Amino acid sequence: MRRLADFLLPLAVAAFLLGAWEAAVAHWQVPAYVLPAPSAIARAFADNFGSLMEALASTLAVTLEAFVAACVLGIATATAFSQSRLLERTLYPYAVILQVTPVVAIAPLILIWVGFERINLALVIIATIVAFFPILAGATLGLKSADFNLIDLTRLYGASRLQTLWRIRLPNALPYLLSGMKTAGGLALIGAVVAEFVAGSGTATGLAWRIVESGNRLEIATLFAALALLALTGVMIFAALSFLEWWLLRRWHESAISAS
Amino acid sequence: MIALSGIAKRFPNGVQALNDLSFTVGRGEFVSLLGPSGCGKSTALRLAAGLLTPDAGTVTCADGKPQIGFVFQDHTLMPWADAMTNARLPLDLKRVPREQADACAVAALARVGLAGFERAYPRELSGGMKMRVSIARALAAQPQLLLLDEPFAALDEITRNTLGDDLLKLWREDGLTVLFVTHSVSESSYLSQRVLVMTSRPGRITADIALASGRDSRLSPVTIEAQRFISGALNTAIAA
């Protein structure tokens, strides 16, 4: 019953808001180029379904590639940090610099360096930079916070560093890593969208470019349809990663047990 | 079996934990290391295990380094692994073939009364059962020397007494050598053959008490008498 309510209540709120929106647009006769009614957005979505799906596939591909790259790089760097305090102290500040520098500011540089003929690679690099840090921070914290007594026990039984890493540090890091991945999933999408905006016309073919293009043509209903698709994609990525988190932790971690 | 001689240990924060600590534990003995909180008992146990190195003094083993089983005050289980995988850890680390390791882990769990709980995760077990898994893990390594760091301190009295009896049974059956850290006079007087009493920090041994036989229950007159004697020695050590 509670699960049904968890699902139905947000839907009821959405239905109410869309109904109010539709009624308000009709009542005050708001021009479609300012705020189209939900029904008009649905029509625009149906009319442009093919091209919107192509744009979604393009953005999604960049997002997923960037997410995977951020996971691989983040986990590898965090593992290296967990094995050497010196390496961590030396390189962590640069990871922070990369994180706090606005990606819009460095995106044009990356586009120039990689070249517009390899635009997809440039987009993936930009989105990876945005998604990288939460994974690095989560994995580093998790790898370093393993129970000292357990680590001592592995030493007592003559474990190699690799065995300790594989059997103790990595499983211990899993909840922290998955939390970082949930944040990174959304950030990879944001990074892909920002990268497409910066790449501009003639090169990028994703949803962000459809938004810019629709705005320029005053096709506001299509713009809203692309926007809704983008939001829905973000929600789906978050839901998929939340499910993965629950599935991997369901037998032992408090966060997953209290959620089931 | 193991001898600590003239041990001194100072931690990086400046605390002198041990100074001139010396004692021996013979093969097959059950020895308790008793002292007030913070006197360096756990540090001494970690030195005996080789997890810490002394600033001065030596730790020597008569016939080379024995296989050690270690039980911490906290159960120190891997929460992401079931009881079987936890008990199997020392064998996995030694790359013992899986079938053989599984058989050892199952046997060790059965010996501590956890047959049928092989697939249970730590969160599904009570405090006493978690400690049993921890003891099973130490037994799975087939230790010659079992080091226990206040293993029952966080448990209720009934569980503590049951686990104490089970530990005695294991010691008698396996001919283990046991070094048992505790701050409980009653526990040390009932379980051990010898009690080493430590001073407050920096810890050293002030009394080495060999206990009389006939302590077959916690309330037998011999056990109560041993308790009185140990309490007196402990009070003297704290006052010193």
For CATH, the homologous superfamily of chain A is named as MetI-like
CATH class category of the domain at 1-66 and 146-153 and 175-240 in chain B:
Alpha Beta
Largest sheet of chain A: none
Give helix and strand order of chain B, one letter per element, not per position: EEEHEEHHHEHEHEEH
Considering the protein shown, what is the CATH homologous superfamily of the domain at 1-66 and 146-153 and 175-240 in chain B? P-loop containing nucleotide triphosphate hydrolases
Task: Determine the fraction of residues in helical runs of chain B and give it as a percent range.
Answer: 25-40%
Strand count of chain A: 0
Cα separation of the termini of chain B: 30 Å
How would you explain this protein's 3D organization?
The complex is a heterodimer of chains A (260) and B (240). The two termini of chain A are 14 Å apart. Chain A has 260 residues and is mostly helical. Chain A has one domain: MetI-like (MetI-like fold, Orthogonal Bundle). The longest helix of chain A has 39 residues, at 161-199. The radius of gyration of chain A is 22 Å and the shape is flat. In chain A, 85% of the residues lie in helices and 0% in strands. The mean pLDDT of chain A is 92. Chain B has 240 residues and is of the alpha/beta class. The mean pLDDT of chain B is 90. The interface between A and B is medium-sized, with 21 and 22 residues.
Features:
heterodimer; A: 260 residues; mainly alpha; MetI-like fold; 85% helix; flat; B: 240 residues; alpha/beta; Rossmann fold; six-stranded mixed beta sheet; three-stranded antiparallel beta sheet; 7 helices; globular
